[in-house]
Every structure is written in structure tokens, then in C-alpha cells.
């Protein structure tokens, strides 16, 4: 199953250009010390879409603030929190937030698509982990056999 199977979850894979993020950052900074909720949301969204883990973490932190302070934005925040954690490779956290959204909106195609993408990554990373573990165990086993063979001579 390729990532293109999840067209609604495109936000999880698309990044924002540096210039676009800079526009959002400048707007956010202009509105300090009390930026509008939409401005803060836009900047958090842009940070989450960055390729930088540090910026993604900052965006997730800001999205958490919005989620906690503005009930009317919770649905969107749950979705973008899930994307943020997904992009940072924190799939269990990504799943927590997407499941919260799906509990409220079970037929949300965008959320279902993102959950599928998360599941795909977990399955792939799990298989890679098993392969690595299997390779390590095989190497340890070969060394143990070699040592035992030397001792028995």
C-alpha cells in the first residue's frame, strides 16, 4: 500500500516553503503580545508542516495551547496534533489524537485516511525492527556457535 492510497492525508506529507512559513511567522510576531487565535493556529500549522523537528515540536506545543484554550478549534487541533506527532515519528501519540477525533467524527474521511497512514508507518517500522532484531539475533547466534565450537576442540 503506497502513501498515495491516502489522498485525504496529504497534509501529513506536504511541507511548507520557507518563504510561506516566514509570512506566517511575521504575522504572528506582529500581533504580539496577544496574537489572534487564527494567526497562532496558522503559524502552528506552518511549523508542523516544516521539515525541522524543532519547528514541528514548537508547532505541536502551540497547537496544544490552542486545543486547551479554544474549544471551538479542538477538532482542527486534534487533526494537526496527530499530523505533528506523525511527522516527528511519534506514532503512538499521533494515534491518540486521531482516535480522539474519530471518536467524535467517525465518518471523517480525512481522519480515517490519516489513521491509515499512521497504521501503515507503524506496520512498516515494526517489520523493519523485526528484521533488524532478527539479524542481530542471527549474528549473536553465529558468534555463540563459533565460541562453543572453539571450546569443544
TrEMBL record:
Sequence ranges of the TPR repeats: 75-108
Main location (coarse class): mitochondrion
One Pfam family per UniProt: Fis1_TPR_N
InterPro entries in the cross-refs: Fis1 (IPR016543), Fis1_cytosol (IPR033745), Fis1_TPR_C (IPR028061), Fis1_TPR_N (IPR028058), TPR-like_helical_dom_sf (IPR011990), TPR_rpt (IPR019734)
Subcellular compartments: Mitochondrion outer membrane
Matches recorded under CDD domains: Fis1
Segments forming a coiled coil: none
Record key words, sorted: Membrane, Mitochondrion, Mitochondrion outer membrane, TPR repeat, Transmembrane, Transmembrane helix
Membrane-spanning residues: 127-149
Keyword Transmembrane: yes
Membrane topology classification: Single-pass membrane protein
GO cellular component, one term: mitochondrial outer membrane
SUPFAM superfamilies, sorted: TPR-like (SSF48452)
GO BP terms: autophagy of mitochondrion; mitochondrial fission; peroxisome fission
Gene3D superfamilies documented for this protein: Tetratricopeptide repeat domain (1.25.40.10)
Family label: Belongs to the FIS1 family.
Function: Has a role in mitochondrial fission.
Domain comment, as recorded: The C-terminus is required for mitochondrial localization, while the N-terminus is necessary for mitochondrial fission.
Protein name (Swiss-Prot/TrEMBL): Mitochondrial fission 1 protein
